[in-house]
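> call design_seq(struct)
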């Protein structure tokens, strides 16, 4: 029995999960001895667990070497299916915050504005208050640049012609030629940077979040105070981490969209 386990703790179930998790340490295939060493379990115990998992369709083995099957994805899909999208994405934001020690957010486009739909904040000096539901003009934000760059020419024209409803007057007010040049650069790079264009002392870097069809559906950013974080830190240190998390968020999004959805009244 494990330390701090209660009387209802099912040790055999815990051991089975230990074996499944052992495959997630960079090993696609593992032998019985490998799994026993990785889990600290006795070989006969690991053998019984592998036979059970094989009968259930979660593991397959050939010539003494075992690997997980795609059925294991059902376990993760159960979580995806039972959760709303922002609950699913929050752990990725929390990981990004842990990597950067800066506030990180996900936003979507709402006309000419961005709206924050998920955020994990770090207590730091800020010049603008941000929470889920906050609107800002899209153009002077890194999140907005990513989202605007993904629009068709007709969609972009319509968005730029509409007035912001955020009530925020940005520091940066470019003409159309400058806007087009900036968005072309965002499309070419695959990410966007803003440096005190929304308000003094605020700089950030953002990347797109895509659905299973490759369409940009949101953007994720790392937000920092200009007095504490340099542009070099944003682009050389934070950006690679951000791009990785954006890719993982895109995978999460695609899985969430593909979840089974019950139709009320269906038979």
């Amino acid at each position: 029995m494990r330390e701090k386990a209660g009387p209802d703790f099912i040790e055999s179930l815990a051991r089975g999960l230990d074996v499944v998790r052992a495959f997630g340490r960079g090993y696609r295939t593992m032998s019985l001895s490998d799994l026993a060493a990785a889990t600290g379990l006795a070989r006969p115990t690991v053998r019984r667990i592998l036979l059970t998992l094989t009968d259930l369709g979660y593991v397959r083995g050939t010539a003494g070497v075992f690997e997980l099957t795609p059925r294991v994805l059902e376990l993760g899909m159960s979580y995806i299916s039972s959760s709303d999208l922002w609950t699913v994405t929050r752990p990725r934001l929390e990981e990004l915050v842990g990597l950067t020690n800066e506030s990180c957010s996900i936003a979507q486009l709402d006309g000419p504005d961005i709206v924050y739909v998920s955020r994990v904040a770090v207590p730091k000096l800020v010049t603008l208050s941000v929470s889920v539901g906050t609107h800002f003009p899209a153009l002077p934000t890194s999140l907005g640049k990513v989202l605007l760059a993904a629009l068709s020419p007709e969609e972009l024209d319509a968005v730029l012609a509409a007035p912001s409803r955020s009530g925020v007057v940005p520091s940066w007010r470019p003409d159309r030629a400058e806007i087009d040049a900036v968005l072309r650069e965002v499309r070419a790079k695959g990410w966007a940077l803003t440096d005190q264009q929304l308000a003094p002392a605020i700089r950030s870097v953002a990347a797109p979040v895509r659905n299973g069809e490759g369409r940009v559906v949101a953007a994720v950013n790392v937000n920092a105070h200009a007095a504490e974080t340099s542009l070099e830190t944003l682009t050389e240190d934070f950006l690679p981490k951000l791009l990785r998390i954006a890719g993982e968020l895109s995978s999460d999004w695609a899985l969430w969209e593909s979840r089974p959805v019950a139709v009320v009244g269906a038979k």
